[in-house]
Design a protein that fits this description.
The chain is of the alpha+beta class. The chain has helices at 2-36, 89-95; strands at 42-45, 50-57, 62-68, 71-76, 80-84. The protein is elongated, with a radius of gyration of 22 Å. It is found in: Cell membrane.
């Protein structure tokens, strides 16, 4: 009886470590991203639509997402699946390719 109980306990620990814990971490990170989405951040909605946050209404938890120039859709915060923080101008300048020649053999 004790061996069977130990086997079940080991099985549960493995199940928790492989499935439950990583899923909980992903859910916690997604909830944090949804709560911190701000104007200018690039988002991917759960429907697969990509856009940029145009407005945030804290009272009703609605977010306006611009999916094309001049086209804004309103969704709830829970519709956000992924958030890319807004870029600063300095980051854009640093990511721009330079005109320097690269020597190759």
């Amino acid at each position: 009886m004790n061996v069977t109980l130990a086997v079940y306990a080991v099985f549960f620990v493995i199940l928790w470590a492989v499935f439950i814990r990583p899923a909980s971490k992903r859910n916690k990170e997604m909830r944090r991203d949804q709560a911190t989405a701000s104007v200018g951040a690039e988002v991917m909605l759960t429907s697969g639509i990509f856009g940029r946050v145009a407005s945030v209404d804290e009272d009703s938890a609605k977010i306006g997402v611009e999916i094309a120039p001049g086209v804004v859709i309103h969704v709830t915060r829970v519709a956000i699946a992924n958030v890319t923080p807004e870029k600063s101008d300095e980051a854009d300048d640093a990511a721009a390719p330079t005109d320097e020649a690269v020597e190759t053999d």
